[in-house]
Write a structure and sequence with these properties.
The complex is a heterodimer of chains A (258) and B (109). Chain A is mainly alpha-helical. Chain A is elongated. With 109 residues, chain B is α+β, with helices and mostly antiparallel strands. Chain B has a single domain, classed as Winged helix-like DNA-binding domain superfamily/Winged helix DNA-binding domain (Arc Repressor Mutant, subunit A), CATH 1.10.10. In chain B, a hairpin with a 5-residue loop joins strand 1 and strand 2. Classes of the chains: A mainly alpha (258), B alpha+beta (109). At the A-B interface, helix 2, helix 3 and helix 12 of A face helix 2, helix 3, strand 1 and strand 2 of B.
Chain lengths: 258, 109
């Protein structure tokens, strides 16, 4: 096998776990498969694995139940937080503003909710189906691209203001993506199957719910923002009662669906 | 009940004993069943059988002939042995009286 083909086989095997990659490529080498056979074998395995994973409800819920709606809603909340911050700082970069009357306390409440909603969404997505994360990531990128165009590119930034402050213009471009860092943090925690225990999960969900209600009664939320509570309560529903159990169950569930 | 390929895999792994791992099982299946066995079919079935508790797997040692890569070793569990035995007995019962099974029995006697 030439080194370039070898690299291609290695690359094709990247969606597999490290041990699987070792075993599969090692088997091909031992069997004396040609480079083409090794590549098609690995690709066939990866494709078969992905298709079979979708027999389970988990990837569907992760991608279409959590990733897609959360991306949309969290982009809007990110933009709202940015707008409120700009207004309180006396700046006006001319975004489309989903909200506009909140004070500093409601801004802090929004910031906390944005981080908490993002983290719980990410955690739910990462823990539900680690092997199909690429679908959730693809949905996120597609939606982010579309909504970014709608919120930012199509809404002209006031050149008179932004022209004088190029850094503000750059910040404005990032406005809808404030949720990305906490969401990725959540995904990485969920993917590692560091599960929440019932107590902390319940505390987190209850806190988020109370703050969501507080923001709602202050007319500082959109009705669909209530949907962002779903991941937090999902984490409560699936929280572990003891120190062991669910991590194995997730893995077994993915295995038996294969 | 087991599927046909699952039975092939469990039986081949049981026959190989301590030497049951991916490449050896694949070779065994191809030799006995006289048909091609893809890596994808092999490993997705291994994973499914492990999920059902019919086999256990662990990473074995790396060898030079594998380019220094480790083997995925396979062992059939008690549950797997019972499932394979049940499959075998059902196949024997369902085959009794069938022309090909009768001819084979006659040849053997």
């Amino acid at each position: 096998m030439t080194s370039s083909w070898w690299s291609l086989v290695e690359f094709a095997a990247r969606p597999l776990e490290r041990d699987e990659r070792e075993a599969v490529i090692g088997d091909s080498v031992e069997a004396g498969d040609s480079s083409w056979q090794a590549l098609s074998g690995v690709l066939g395995f990866v494709l078969r694995r992905q298709l079979l994973l979708w027999k389970s409800w988990r990837p569907w819920l992760a991608a279409f139940g959590f990733a897609a709606p959360s991306t949309w809603l969290l982009m809007t909340v990110s933009l709202s937080v940015t707008c409120t911050s700009e207004r309180l700082l006396g700046l006006n970069l001319g975004h489309w503003a989903p909200t506009g009357h909140e004070g500093i306390f409601m801004l802090l409440c929004h910031v906390f909710l944005l981080v908490a909603w993002s983290w719980t969404s990410g955690f739910a997505i990462g823990s539900l189906s680690p092997r199909t994360l690429w679908t959730s990531a693809a949905l996120f990128l597609l939606l982010a691209q579309f909504l970014n165009h709608m919120y930012i590119v199509a809404a002209p930034v006031h050149s008179a203001v932004a022209g004088g402050f190029p850094s503000f213009f750059a910040i404005a471009r990032l406005a809808p993506f404030l949720f990305v860092v906490p969401a990725f943090w959540g995904v990485s925690r969920g993917k590692r199957e560091v599960r929440l225990r019932r107590g902390p999960a319940l505390f987190l969900a209850a806190t988020i719910t109370i703050l969501t209600a507080a923001a709602w009664f202050n007319n500082a939320l959109w009705v669909l923002n209530w949907l962002l509570l779903c991941p937090a309560w999902f984490l409560v529903a699936t929280a572990r009662r003891s120190e062991t159990g669910r991590a194995t169950k997730v893995r077994q569930s993915e295995r038996s669906s294969v | 009940m087991l599927g046909e390929f699952e039975y092939l895999l469990i039986t081949t792994a049981a026959r190989l004993g301590d030497n049951a791992y991916g490449a050896a099982i694949r070779e065994g299946i191809e030799e006995i069943a006289q048909r091609k066995c893809s890596i994808g079919a092999l490993y997705t079935t291994i994973e499914r059988l492990e999920g059902k508790g019919l086999i256990t797997t662990w990473m074995g040692e790396a060898t030079a002939e594998r380019g220094g890569r480790a083997k995925r070793m396979v062992r059939v569990t008690g549950k797997g042995t019972r499932a394979a035995k049940e499959f075998y007995e059902v196949m024997m019962r369902v085959s009794s009286g069938a022309s090909w099974a009768v001819r084979r029995a006659e040849r053997l006697s």
